Sequence to fold (233 residues):
Amino acid sequence: MVRLTRDVIDYQALTESVRDPHCGAIALFLGTVRELTGDHRTVFLDYEAYAPMAERKMAEIEAELGRRWPVARVALVHRLGRLSVGEVSVAVAVSCPHRAEAFEACRFAIDTLKELVPIWKKENAPDGTGEWVHQSVQPNPEQKQSESARGR
Amino acid sequence: MTLTVYLFAGARDLAGSDALAVDLPAGATVAQLLAELRQRVPALAGLLSRSAVAVNHDFAPAQQVLSASDEVAIIPPVSGG
Fold:
């Protein structure tokens, strides 16, 4: 299950949604709004997405998890809109038979989401100024394909 | 052909619009679209050099040929999570 939402992420319900009788492990990752990035203080973040593409890329991540690990269920949710310090911006819940694969799959999901899914955050400072975060360098699509072909 | 190019986040702020109509010759590529955008909106040039292009909701290489029915978007470096 993948979803973009403007509502508070109910990570307890999300965790329940991936429970499975064949699984002995659930890994849950929560991304939360951090107050300090270096010396910069953030009072709130604004998140926006290119929604149809973001949902497609998130669904591709879900499918990739199923190819690489014995994942039973996946829940991948990202929040959009204005979030205060401490709020949950993203949640990944993965159930697997054993913990090693659950941790690995969960980490792959959040790492790949942060690298490829078209979602952006704007950091808003106490003085009323805001700045979109565009730090990473976009992967070359061909390079991306060869990377996924040989497995990361 | 005229394509609508969608802009997000910092790209939208720099261009002052969330979409631009761009005229391109038939058979134009993603690289030609970027060149046209750089010329038309010089303020975007710096961010464009670090951005990807999405065609129909997938990342597109520079040599991909565009068609009039494509949905095209500029994807500045992402920062979700």
Summary: Residues 2-150 of chain A form a domain with the Aldehyde Oxidoreductase; domain 3 fold (CATH 3.90.1170.40). The helical segments of chain A are 11-17, 51-68, 99-116, 141-150. DSSP finds four helices and ten strands in chain A. Confidence is low (pLDDT under 50) at residues 143-152 of chain A.
